[in-house]
Model the fold of this input.
Amino acid sequence: MSSVLIKNTLIVPLDNNGPDYYFGDILTVGDRIKTIAARPAVIDAAMAETVIDGKNLIVMPGLINTHGHAAMTLFRSYADDMPLQQWLEEKIWPIEEHLESNDVYWASMLAMAEMIKGGTTTFTDMYFFMDRVAEAVAESGIRAVLSRGLVGLGSGGEIGLTETEALINRWHGTENGRINIAIGPHAPYTCPLSYLDRAMELAAKTGVPLQIHLSETRQEVEDCLKEHGVTPPKLLLNAGLFDFDVIAAHCVHLSDADIEILAEKKISVAHNPGSNLKLGSGVAPVVKMLQKGINVGIGTDGASSNNNLDMIEEMRLAALIAKGVALDPTLLNARTALQMATSIGAKALFLQDTGTLREGAKADIIGLRCDRPHLTPMHDPLAHLVYASAAADVEMVIVDGKLLLSGGELLTIDEEKVRAEVNRSAQRLVKANEEKQGEI
Done:
C-alpha cells in the first residue's frame, strides 16, 4: 500500500476532539490516516514512500461540496442576471436538449479539475449521462455522490428511473467506495406525487439516499400552496419522501414549521449561498436550521448559476451573509463554517469516515500555503481559512490516500486537453441551440 507523510505542518483537524489546531505530522497508509503525531512527537520519514514538507502549509480535511451540477461548467457565463424560472426555461433547458455524453464527460472533468485545485475532495452531482460522469470520477481520483436528474413530466421520467437503477447497480460503492449513487428527483414542481412514489420505491429497493431541490424560490412555495395547500417540505413529508435519507438543496424559503419538519425527520440540507444570491432567490435560514440540529452542508450549485466551484468562497459567503442578515457578528463563526464545509457536509451526504482528520479516517486531506501576504500574520488559522484564504492557496490534495494535486499542479487530469474539449463542446452546443431557435 502507498503511504504519504506530511511533516512539520499546522494541522486543523475539525474533529471536535482536542485543540482547534496544532503542529505535527500526519502519516497515511493506503486509503486511511494511520498516525497523527502532535509536537513534540514526530513520525519517522522512513515509514513513508512519499514525504511532503508541510512547514508552509495549513493541513485540514478536504472540502465537501454538497450540491451541484458538474457538467454545467459548459454554461458558465451563458445565462446570467436572470430569475431562476426564466433562466431555466429560456436558456438552460433549451440548450441542454443538445447535450451528448462526451459533452458531459469533458465538462464534468473540467469541474473536477477546478474543484480539486480549490481543495474540494468530495462533490455531489445531479445531471445526465451519469455513467460518463462516474467514469470521469474514477479517472480523476476525486470522491463523489452522483445522481441522475429525474423529471417526472413528459416521456423521460421512465427512462430516468431505469438509468438510475442501472447506475446504482454498476457504480454504487465502487472505486474503493469513492463513488456513491443517490436518487435525484429534481424538485416537487417537476416531479408529480405519483412519480415521487416511483423514486421512493427505488430508494426502498436499493437503500441509497435521495437528493432534491426544495423551497428554492418564493414562487415555488406559493405555487405549492396554491396547488396542494401545503408548503414543499410538508408536501414531501405527507408523500413519505422524508421517511428516507434525503439531501434537500437550497431550502431558502422555510417557515418555522418547515424547519421543525426537517429537524424531526433528520433531513440534510445543502446551503448554496452564492447561487441563491446570484439568482435572487433569497437567503436560507441557516442559523435556525443549525440551532435545530439539522446537518447543513455547503454547496456551490452549478457553474452556470454561481459562476465558479470555489468552496472557500462559499464558506466565506455563508458566514458573512448569516452575520449581515441578523446584524449579529457572532453568528456562524469560522469554526462552524469550516465544519459545514467538511465534517457536517460529510454527515449531510451520509458519508462515513471522512470530513475530519483523525486516525482511522479516510485520507482525504488538503494543504493550503500559509506563507502568503494575505495570510500574514497568523493569529487564528481557522479565521484565516474562512475569511482570508483563497482557492489559489491550495497546494496539495490527497483523496483516498492518493495525491491528486502537488505543488498546485494536477496529477490525474490533463487540464489543457480538458479545457480544449470543453471549449469545443460549448461552441457546438451554442450553435445547435441557435439553429433550432431560428427554426422556431
Summary: The longest strand covers residues 3-11. The two ends are 59 Å apart (CA to CA).
